[in-house]
Amino acid sequence: MTADDPHEISRRGLMLVLSSPSGAGKTTISREILSRDANLHMSVSATTRPKRPGEVEGRDYFFTAEEDFHLMANRRELLEHATVFGHLYGTPRKPVEEALAAGRDVLFDIDWQGTQQLREAARADLVSVFILPPSVPELERRLKSRAQDSAEVVARRMAQASDEMSHWPEYDYIVVNREIAGSVAEVQAILTAERLRRERQVGLGDFVRFLREG
What we know:
The structure is a single chain. The protein is built from eight helices and eleven strands. By secondary structure, it is α/β, with parallel strands linked by helices. It has a domain at about 10-45 and about 105-210: P-loop containing nucleotide triphosphate hydrolases (Rossmann fold, 3-Layer(aba) Sandwich), CATH 3.40.50.
């Protein structure tokens, strides 16, 4: 079929959520998938935390004053928002809805609180994946090997990991990140299957009728 074919099948985009305790690998997996898939775009969150060296406004985050963040939340301009380690984070609604309507998929690197809110806001568009570490000692080793957090922060993240992992039943898929290549392949397989769901194929009924009419 050509782009002008009245029986063409298009697709509504989806929201792919990756969550995990800190250090389990979701950010590394996200970067790998984004580099391989031109139709997958990272959601850019708004945050009240200070900008870190090298971060770019609008690419990494929308850096927002706390008062403005609360205004956005009150106006329901955020799909989800949460407090993480003392700072506010949230997903602006408009760019995500525009991407989904245009058939583009949006990747979210958020925690279980944000995922719950996305499920309430747009369950039909949501595909959620929880990344688990292969063991607790390995999770601690990965946190320490990043060398970006103090011993106190690592201990706090480890203490929080148990609570975060308790939310695994709320997710559609579970991936145990034993090694990055295998985990990336599994998440890509999930994405491929979810893109083919009948409910996401716009115009499929007309196309089948066209086929049946010969």
